[in-house]
From TrEMBL:
Keywords: Aminotransferase, Cytoplasm, Glutamine amidotransferase, Repeat, Transferase. It comes from Solitalea agri. GO terms for cellular component: cytosol. This is Glutamine--fructose-6-phosphate aminotransferase [isomerizing]. It comes from the Bacteria. GO terms for biological process: carbohydrate metabolic process; fructose 6-phosphate metabolic process; protein N-linked glycosylation; UDP-N-acetylglucosamine metabolic process. Homodimer. Residues 288-427, 460-601 form the SIS domain.
Amino acid sequence: MCGIIAYVGRQQALPILINGLKRLEYRGYDSAGVAVMNPNLTIYKKKGKVINLEEHALNNKIDSTIGMGHTRWATHGEPCDRNSHPHLSNKKDLAIIHNGIIENYATLKQELLSKGHVFESDTDSEVLIHFIEDIQENLGCALEEAVRIALTRVTGAYAIVVMSQKNPDMLIAARKSSPLIVGVGKDEFFLASDATPIIQYTKQVVYLKDYEVAVIKNGKLTITDLQNNIHDAYIKELDIELAAIEKGNFEHYMLKEIFEQPKTILDCLRGRLLAEEGKVRLGGLREYIDQLCNAKRIIIIACGTSLNAGMVARYLFQEICRIPVEVEYASEFRYGSPVVRDGDVVIAISQSGETADTLVAIEKAKEMGAIILGICNVVGSSIPRASHAGVYTHAGAEIGVASTKAFTAQLTVLYLIALQVAKEKGTLDNDRFRLLLNELDKIPAKVQTILDNSYLTQSLASLYLDAQNMIYLGRGYNFPIALEGALKIKEISYIHAEGYPAAEMKHGPIALIDEEMPVVFIATKDHTYEKIVSNIQEVKARKGKVIAIVTEGDEMVKSLADHVFEIPETDEILTPLLSVIPLQLFAYYTGVLRGCNVDQPRNLAKSVTVE
């Protein structure tokens, strides 16, 4: 959720911090703040976007080569100046920034209040820095030891950075269930929630693991665990270019990422789909392919858009692999007394690889003996490390909060996995297998064809930007795309929308249909086509407005619908990779025309690292 950036070295810290916060703003934009040594420990923080902080901080002359910054997604305490990070300790000589939730903060706060501590915010984070100070004073220990001791007594999730007035060249950082990396430069170090704010300075990074503490002092990096055992700092090279996190010529990141999908899908396929040879090669699953092929059941665990990708996979694995599949909300999995048996495989899907609900769910499944396969976009993130095996999507950095290219990348990987399993099991004859490989190979070009006609969705959005409610309907493989389309329009334009299986409309939602209700049908040519045509007629009979996504050349639905958007023909199994694109564009243009911030929708954040 929240974004963390810190720096110590030979450069001026404030420009690095402000620039870093701008790149991290997709992780939270309720407020922002920085702490620097100037020469005393000085804090500037403001409610709202980073631009508010920048204007405030730049009015002051700041000469400092050490500092830390934070952009907030509010959990404890409303968005306001006093709840913004960084937070000071009781004696004001320690400061903290924090991403996560300290679950036992209330108990700790009462203990500290009884000792005379005075708190200036409603946050759990302020309690933690007071607690660290209290331990240091009572034990007379070094600050890094006080941090380690404090973290053994707190419960919850955290990525923290601590600064000290008495140690003006030192940064202390630690993580548990929230991401934090160390960037290693020449005579300088960076700390950040992800790579986006530091890639322009260094590509050398250390991924901190849970319960690790990093101390940067006197120009040296030391990593320990909470028991003060020294850990090796394994430096890895980032595989990302600065251009990948810039908007380029696009007005918004979301539009850029929608238009990147021909490339990102191709990147997912490259080296894995060998259509001419009739092969799928997924090296990340090599050791576990037998377990996957022999799975008695697959359980897919995910949240949000990733869950919708998993729902498409449910149809896919059951049809071509003949394996029963259940799709579970990660946030509900451990609370539903899950039944996991020997031979079950859990597939966890997450763009960031840090989704807290998904991490907790797979930990529960692992305890019960499941094999965990991860599908993630961010190399080195927590879910791949917690999985037995997995596949990266290679979609590149996704800055827009509403997921687009990550969704189609996840789908692409799921198709590859299912095709490999079906081939290994013999549940798909060779002719059908090769046909699907060839059709999947053509998907990037067909996505490009849809994008070349994006102006049509822009015109359509102008007609419905005043809608208050919408219904999205689909059948089979396109039912999850109806859910995804409804989710996108909600996230980006704040129009209330719901997705349903088309046949379920007459079991309740049809009561909402009138001349003011736009209904979006995914009505491509497949084995349910005649049924969905009947559903369209039911809506038209009640004067509903019909928007339909149809297969190119379809005249039947075109004659019934008020508006259509055509997509190229493909095998019905692969249709979701195409039918979702106009829905992404429609949501984007509707949001823009309604004056919404499509890259940073209200109340949302990119990486949900708290339960």
